[in-house]
Amino acid sequence: MAARSPYFAAEESARGIRPGESPAAALRRILATPGAHQAPCCFDALGARLVERAGFPIGFMGGTRNNSTQDFACSVFLEEAFGFCVSAARLGLPDVGLISYGEMVDQGRLINEAVSIPVIGDGDNGYGNSMNIKRTIKGYINAGFAGIMLEDQVAPKACGHTEGRKVIPRDEAIMHIKAAVDARKESGSDIVIVARTDSRQAISFDEALWRVKAFADAGADVLFIDALASVEEMKAFCAVAPEVPKMANMLEGGGKTPILSPAELEKIGFSLVVYPLSLVGVSMRAMQHYLLFSIQASMQDALVAIKDGGVPPPSILPSFQEIKDTLGFNRYYKEEKQYQVDK
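The line above is the sequence of Isocitrate lyase; the predicted structure tokens follow.
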């Protein structure tokens, strides 16, 4: 499938997408090289441009994530976390499944037109059953994404690094990955499929290991277990299907997974590492405490911190609790309880 055309043409020496190369081919090439490749999460075209200008070879667009617990921690690029960023920036609403497939594809198209680096898009749980997943895959391909992350949570979903998550049955989860692979083949695309499981929290660590192995057998290109709780668990994960790249989520400011440097993550066996909250977090902090013109500088400071192997300091990045309060998560939880049905 031909590469999409960003506004600015890629340079021959670019670390991202080279002339005539598809976004997915560029992502596959990068992941095949040594290192734990860093991918800060971006939520709009400006953020994506800043990620590219800072020298990162990959971007991750976080999109939708349901969260029905009080212990919020946002999980691409997204995660997540991923889902938090676009929902926050585009709607100004908590990441509880309110943003739609169409809005995500539209946002992704704008981001991918702005940069010449491959971008992975958070595809949530595919927005439905296997047939919905096939439509989602094709839509993300047409929007110019190099990769898409799909997860196995039930709907409504919970955000990453929280309690109370539930996952769909094993067979259904595997079939979703197979449907994604089929949609890729039908499209003549090489989009990278990142298969995520939330079963570490929902069921057990052993179940998570079983699922990622099954996802690899079904054709997934990158594997991700959310909310790994220790370095030992991270090592055990990377030992599964060793030929398939693994993704780590460095949730800034207090997730369940230990924060490690890219060098440490590479040593364990990770090929891809995402930072979900830095850009949207420092944007909120800048708007709260400084004039609007300082946002870009704060984003750049956050990217420098990541580049140096750390995460943004508390002085420029609000806590998860502050972010949650700002976007109305607690209000959502309170209203949600009014409509819960005892089972």
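Note on the example: Confidence is low (pLDDT under 50) at residues 64-81. The two ends are 48 Å apart (CA to CA).
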